[in-house]
């Protein structure tokens, strides 16, 4: 042990040196310590459809998935994923060669980057970004190139010229997230068409994180990048069951892509978890066959909750950005006379009994995200109303 501690070389792989404990772990621990309402980490406080939960129980009892499932995922789930892509978007995928089941979208992202990125390759990611993007790019030895979504009125917007200018001869991949966490932005057809044309023009691979595909509101629509000309063969599309069916603990995600891309991603994935979530795969296969009314009800319920929290945050004095998708709201704390979102979030549990996430931690250019804070509204309406009441009381000094 003495030799280990005296070594000049740090124990942690230097590629991960910039990554410590995630902000989600820190804030969730703070919520438990203070008994605060946790609007930080994005998980629902109620389970999804009872029939889906019962499907998992039935699979367990019937002995389906209790041992290692097939490496690519059980055939029933791969077929259900392909059917979903065809039914929703007109995208035809072969369930045997173009679908891969993963341990949530997080593993799908990691496996895609490990498989497709080599040291020195540049990966362009929309900033602010989900924190696993940065870690996965680092593990692959790639270079992260952020393109910042900037406030424009009541939403965050992608500067298409800035995106084009970020592409160099070393760019290997665009990592796109829409609906976008944490800003709630949903890229428009025009923005997506520009991204597609750029990818084709510069011969770039695209990994697109679409886990919030069913959580879009008002006039927004989710359009997969793979539907645009020239994109199906160069796009790895990622989604998962956690956000759509409110079973985030099951960790069932998937990749759809060309056979060549799926084979590459599977080559990395098999050395990560190998397989996972056997019985839950059977349940998710049934979930994906739920009628359209389920998705409509989910969207309507979350839109109502969004509006409850948005109104509460506004009454508490924060400036609120419009959420077109996901189940997060971004707010600006500067109207409260504050500008440091990290300090604000660390003090908020004691001041108001509410936990949120500072979005600066999702930026390379942290000053660009310093005054912004993310709140999750995937909670029961009564919880959101109580959180709003506490925030308003704290703002008033009560």
Written account of the structure:
Strands 2-9-8-7-6-3-4-5 form an eight-stranded mixed beta sheet, sandwiched between helices. Strands 10-11-14-13 form a four-stranded antiparallel beta sheet. The protein has a two-stranded parallel ribbon with strand order 1-12. The chain is 42% helix and 16% strand. The protein is of the alpha/beta class.
Can I get a quick summary?
The protein has helices at 2-6, 23-34, 50-61, 75-89, 104-116, 131-139, 160-166, 189-201, 242-245, 259-269, 278-287, 292-315, 341-352, 366-369, 381-395, and strands spanning 37-38, 99-102, 122-127, 143-152, 155-158, 171-177, 205-209, 235-240, 253-256, 319-320, 328-332, 354-355, 357-358, 372-376. It is α/β, with parallel strands linked by helices and 398 residues long. The strands form three sheets. An eight-stranded mixed β-sheet has the order 2-9-8-7-6-3-4-5, sandwiched between helices. Strands 10-11-14-13 form a four-stranded antiparallel β-sheet. Strands 1-12 form a two-stranded parallel ribbon.
Number of strands: 14
Please, what is the oligomeric state?
Answer: single chain
Taken as a percent bin, the fraction of beta residues is: 15-25%
Question: Largest sheet at a glance?
Answer: 8 strands, mixed
